[in-house]
């Protein structure tokens, strides 16, 4: 089992920045993928950014150039640096971790990000 705890959400004005953190604990040694997803009211959950064990990353087109995903292996933590925030970035942001070998797919509890115009 893997436990994920997100932090760092909040209220920010358009153009501002926030950094989200996702701390992983438990059976983390087999995690191959970690990602940030978001879900706005009335919309489906969507991928924002992902990072694989080898270090490769992927971003949604809507956040490219503004958001950066990174990780600190010593702290078992993944970060999402969000710059130039827009009102349309408002959503609950969720951390996800996947362990394909064990069919593990884990989610955090979510953290609210609200961007005011």
What is the strand and helix layout of this fold?
Elements: E1 2-7, E2 10-13, E3 18-26, E4 33-39, E5 46-52, E6 57-59, E7 67-72, E8 77-82, E9 91-99, E10 104-107, E11 111-116
Parallel strand pairs: 2-11
Antiparallel strand pairs: 1-3, 3-8, 4-5, 4-9, 5-6, 7-8, 9-10, 9-11
Radius of gyration: 14 Å
Shape annotation: globular
Q: Using DSSP, what is the number of strands?
A: 11
Number of helices: 0
The structure class reads: mainly beta
Q: Which characteristics define this entry?
A:
seven-stranded mixed sheet
Task: Describe it.
Strand 9 and strand 10 form a beta hairpin. The strands form two sheets. Strands 2, 4, 5, 6, 9, 10 and 11 form a seven-stranded mixed beta sheet that branches. The protein starts with a strand and ends with a strand. The protein is globular. The mean pLDDT is 95. It is an all-beta fold.
